[in-house]
Amino acid sequence: MYRLLLSSALLLTVSAQAPPAEPLDKPTELRALIERYSADRGLLSRFYNIGLSPTRAQRMQRFYADWSARLAALPFEPLSQDGKVDYILFRNHLQRELRQFDLDAQSQSAISSLVPFAPGIVALEESRRKLEPLDARKAGAALDAIRRNTAETQRTLQASLRSTPVSKARAWKAAGQVAELRGVLARWFNFYNGYDPLFTWWAAEAYRQTDSALNSYAAFLREQVAGVRGAEPAASGAGRRAGGPPDPPDPNAAARVNSRLDNADDVIGDPIGREALISDLAFEMIPYTPEELIAIANRELAWCENEMRRASRELGYGDDWKKALEQVKGLYVEPGRQPTLIRDLAREAEAFLDQHNLLTIPPLARETWRMEMMSPERQLVNPFFTGGEVISVSFPVDSMTYDQKMMSMRGKNIHFSRATVFHELIPGHELQLFMSARYKPYRALFATPFYTEGWALYWELLLWDMQFQKGPEDRIGALFWRMHRCARIIFSLSFHLGRMTPQQCIDLLVDRVGHERSNAIGEVRRSLDGSYPPLYQAAYLLGGLQLRALRSELVDPGRMTNRQFHDAILQLGRIPIEMVRASLNGQPIPRDWQTNWKFYGPIQP
């Protein structure tokens, strides 16, 4: 009895001290269906896992078509508002996946002549995946045929370059595919080598020679055709000789990274064109043309420049805001002190949110974010921060040159950092990802950068309006990033429209925004190298403007408080913001819904 009473007393004590329970996520009618689809899609993607395989394309096309028909057969009108939102999101996703096959086929046809040996490699791995009987002698012959095809392709291309040049973008993409194919071939070889003595006898040496030929060809494409020297293969180590020791440390790694920090020659991208941009914008539910979005960015950039001049005058530099910017860049912490700065800035932002009752911060989210320092290799494409549960901090390392260290510290100065730490942590990406894992997590399938990055950027806009910045130096730090996001829209869309080269994109960041050149090179490299979708860089400011417009509809008239508005958004998942709007204002959603929300109003390109 004593133990029972003691246990009860302890439970009462813990219960009294525990924070109030958060509301649980409510299921919608389509949640189970979408979760089933996601599970099936993941299974098929893992089985048909060769990106260049026609078999994979055919099977996934059939899968998406079957699910499109299944969704179309569902009754729509009886669905709740959340159910209708899920329906529109799911249909939009399936339509995009089906449309992507045509775009992928066009893209692949443009470089297929540079990788004519791809079908042979794909056939070997697909046969293994199907567990078909292996003829070791034929496997050795197949490897030798791939080697000869690879060597002949390289010789033919080298001989024709003067008369028939190949674009840098095409060569770079082909080099990436060769690296991917090396990985596929290594996977196939590893399965048999050492387990099948006859296979090893016939195929081990043939594989070594074939892998060497593929590696040589990839290097030729990168260095002699694309003109990129010192870059690692896209699939580093994938073609390593199976069963051998790991690659030894590279003594030249630091020098190679340093050479790329200041080198714009390896900033290569492949413009997708206006038609593809229009298609992507429709999928992201942005009812503007690329030209209209560039006009919006130019208008916002002009506003920033006016505010920069105002802050510059306060610092005694008149209208020469670039001199004021130079002063701010010189206000950095000493090496080793950046983590302390980031910690203090994060806590300052949390206190501001609490003071103004702007949103709910779950205690666990506040407790568990953590920090890492970014490797020199990652800094090539992430010259500032990345955020979420872990904030990864870019800062110079000892292997960098003196000039590189100075440029890096100037670009991560105190006031630039104060304007972005909360973007990466709370209330930005860390809180956003914490909540999306707990509310409608199945909607991760529909995640869009216009929400993911737009939410974090929106807080930069709102905290500016609430005078979070303490003085002209802070305002300059915030304006630098706002100008940066305007420039991202201009250069990324202009590049994909064929109006700007990578070098012109870099020059825009240096001349119009005030970037350190190595940081500008890293920013443009990240934006154009294919690791992000074409609209990703434009999504920051445009998504933030969408959320600001939505707040003016719901908070300014008093329909919601700031806290209600922000908490509700975080519980809807990382979906297109027009669907967030439909969820929050309860507007009718027809079955044939199409994007139509002009969140910025009319604008002339």
**What structural class do the secondary elements suggest?**
mainly alpha
| Helical residues, percent | 55-70%
Structural domains: how many? 3
> What is the CA-atom radius of gyration, in angstroms?
27 Å
Summarize the structure.
The chain has 605 residues and is mainly alpha-helical. Helix content is 63%, strand content 2%.
Description:
- The chain is mainly alpha-helical.
- It folds into 3 domains: 31-109; 112-243, no CATH class; 274-584, no CATH class.
- The chain has helices spanning 2-17, 31-47, 54-72, 81-109, 118-129, 136-160, 168-192, 197-225, 253-261, 274-283, 290-314, 321-329, 338-355, 363-368, 376-379, 402-411, 414-418, 421-424, 429-436, 449-465, 472-496, 502-513, 517-528, 536-554, 562-570, 577-585, and strands at 370-373, 385-386, 390-393.
- It has a 3-stranded mixed β-sheet, with no helix packed on it.
- The protein is globular and about 75 Å long.
- Residues 1-19 and 232-262 have low confidence and may be disordered.
